[in-house]
TrEMBL record:
Protein name (Swiss-Prot/TrEMBL): Right handed beta helix domain-containing protein
InterPro entries recorded: Pectin_lyas_fold (IPR012334), Pectin_lyase_fold/virulence (IPR011050)
Stretches the record annotates as Disordered: 524-553
Domain of life: Bacteria
Gene3D superfamilies for the chain: Single-stranded right-handed beta-helix, Pectin lyase-like
Record's keyword annotation contains Secreted: no
Keywords: Signal
Signal sequence interval, chain numbering: 1-19
């Protein structure tokens, strides 16, 4: 078997044969553990005998045969009854791993001699290519029904080609195949003007299959006008997946920009009208194990997104993006609702190192029914619900369809709510919404006014631990014992360069929150001094780069 190597701008996925069954997770045999990989993470599943609420599972990991072990974040006991999967009692993730690497993982039930070990490989960023199909420019959709094999993926090469269907067809590309790479296409004009059905359409619609890579594509001018609302049809997307069996879709280093239609904001035509319109990437209740990374989802004030990256269903055990999925390194703007929508099951879903600006809710996580959901290292900018009104929250939180869906654990670490032109959110962690089963550490939770809530104090809140955060708003009385009340002071020239997608968000020396954070195993980035800084960007660290030029930290 030969491998072709690609430049960093065109990372590809390889899945080993034994990984091909990963998707919807079934519990391993009693006492055994399971790991579900992506490029940089392993999702862990284990049901040891003797598991209990007061007993965590300790996690260690190392590169196979290495001399030393590293500590991972412990897993909490959280069996979920009534789901479609036979879930394990303990679930969690190891993050910031190297691609294409074999790891040993050691799990131990705290306070007991019960333990287990497993070996797992992360996805590699190289792929054995099979047939390469050179696709010419045209005005008719490309219909893909032939895929490759695990050791010979079929490449549809669109470099230099433009498919512009001129709004005469719903899709530019449809996929009903597996082991497929779509590379380098310019796509325009998806969404037939004669189609007035509510069912959403996609410029690229993965209708069925698994193991599909969409990379280096430029997609614009998609979507349809809805004459009933005067805006776009809801959910019309640049990349769309809605088959419940679809799994392992990678969308990377794509520019998904300027849809053909606009989205209403929450006050159009009157308050409160939920935004409805185009999206960039939409996953609806799929099996998951997807990766969405290094993309740019941008537009302008006349062509706003609903949720640039999102899907559904929120009150469910599935939702978006799907279990064992990663969203990182993306540059996301121009949303009248949620910048990133990660709602539903949230089972081993990881969201890190994204930049989100120009949204009503920066990251939506209502609800997390299974978990754990990890949100860390993200930076958020302008928060707005209309061009002139303050937005809602850094994290939406709360529930969708009732508190019965709020049974999953959430970990919120090292995020920065940055004051971009003073357009701060009015809420930090949920505002006045219900927040449950959430641990926060080392976040900068600056809100618009000291009377606003940096963290929810809703009476039904349960099982939360807010601490070591920098905040200027209200927080629950029994929380933030090691937190810092104050306003962050940033280094000179802090902020985002929208042209280069490069930002500096380090705290200035002596700022509140500088050198006062709690080191977190496997999550806190490298730092200087006795303790790390609160927030996403450590002092002395290089500027952060998002979008197509980004790399994993």
């Amino acid at each position: 078997m030969s491998f072709r190597f690609f430049s960093p701008a065109l990372f590809i996925i390889t899945l080993l044969a034994h990984q091909a069954t990963f998707g919807q997770v079934k519990a391993p045999p009693a006492g055994q553990a399971l790991a579900v990989p992506t490029f940089h993470c392993l999702g862990l599943y284990w049901s040891p005998p003797g598991g209990a609420l007061d007993r965590a599972v300790e996690v260690r990991y190392r590169v196979k045969d290495a001399a030393t072990w590293s500590e991972g974040l412990s897993m909490r006991y959280n069996p979920i009854e009534g789901t479609e999967e036979d879930l394990t009692d303990y679930r969690g993730s190891i993050v910031h791993l190297q691609p294409g690497t074999i790891y040993e993982v050691a799990l131990k039930l705290a306070g007991t001699e019960t333990s287990t070990r497993l070996v797992a490989s992360t996805w590699s960023e190289r792929l054995p290519e099979g047939e390469v199909v050179r696709v010419p420019s045209g005005d008719a959709p490309l219909v893909i029904t032939e895929g490759g094999k695990p050791d010979a993926w079929k490449v549809y090469d669109g470099a230099g080609a433009t498919i512009d269907v001129k709004h005469r067809h719903n899709n530019c590309i449809t996929v009903n195949a597996s082991y497929v790479i779509l590379r380098g296409f310019t796509l325009k004009g998806a969404g037939a003007t004669t189609n007035l059905l509510k069912k959403s359409v996609g410029a690229i619609d993965v209708e069925s299959g698994h193991d599909v890579v969409i990379e280096g594509c430029d997609i614009s001018d998609w979507g349809r006008f809805n004459p009933k609302t005067g805006f776009g049809f809801n959910g019309d997307s640049a990349v769309l997946c809605r088959d419940p069996k679809v799994t392992r879709i990678v969308v990377q280093r794509c520019r998904l920009h300027h849809p053909s239609q606009d989205t209403n904001n929450w006050y159009e035509p009157k308050a409160s009208t939920h935004p409805a319109g185009p999206q960039a990437i939409s996953f609806f209740d799929t099996e998951g194990n997807h990766v969405i990374r290094y993309n740019e989802c941008v537009s302008d004030p006349e062509h706003m997104f609903n949720d640039p990256i999102g899907g559904g269903a929120n009150g469910s055990y599935r939702g978006a993006p799907g279990a064992d999925s990663d969203i990182y390194g993306n540059f996301v703007t121009h949303a009248w609702d949620d910048g990133l929508e990660v709602e539903g099951g949230g089972r081993n879903v990881r969201v890190w190192d994204n930049y989100v600006s120009g949204a009503a809710n920066m990251i939506a996580n209502a609800a997390t029914s299974i978990g754990p959901l990890y949100i860390w290292g993200n930076v958020t900018g302008r928060c707005q619900v209309t061009p002139t009104q303050a937005g809602y929250g850094f994290l939406k939180m709360g529930n969708a369809g009732g508190v019965k869906w709020q049974t999953g654990h959430q970990y919120i670490f090292h995020n920065t709510v940055f004051s971009e032109d003073g357009a701060l959110p009015t809420g930090g962690l949920g505002g006045s919404r219900i927040v449950t089963h959430t641990i926060t550490r080392n976040n900068i939770l600056q809100v618009r006014a000291a009377t606003n809530r940096s963290a929810s104090s809703a009476e039904p809140n349960v099982d939360n631990d807010f601490d070591y955060d920098l905040f200027n708003g209200q927080v629950p009385e029994t929380h933030e014992k090691h937190g810092v009340r104050g306003v962050p002071a940033y280094v000179t020239d802090a902020g985002m360069n929208a042209q280069t997608k490069t930002g500096r968000f380090q705290l200035a020396p002596g700022s509140p929150g500088a050198g006062t954070a709690q080191p977190l195993p496997n999550f806190t980035p490298a730092f200087t001094g006795k303790a790390p800084d609160m927030g996403a960007h450590q002092q002395g660290e290089s500027p952060l780069i998002y979008g197509v030029a980004s790399q994993a930290r």
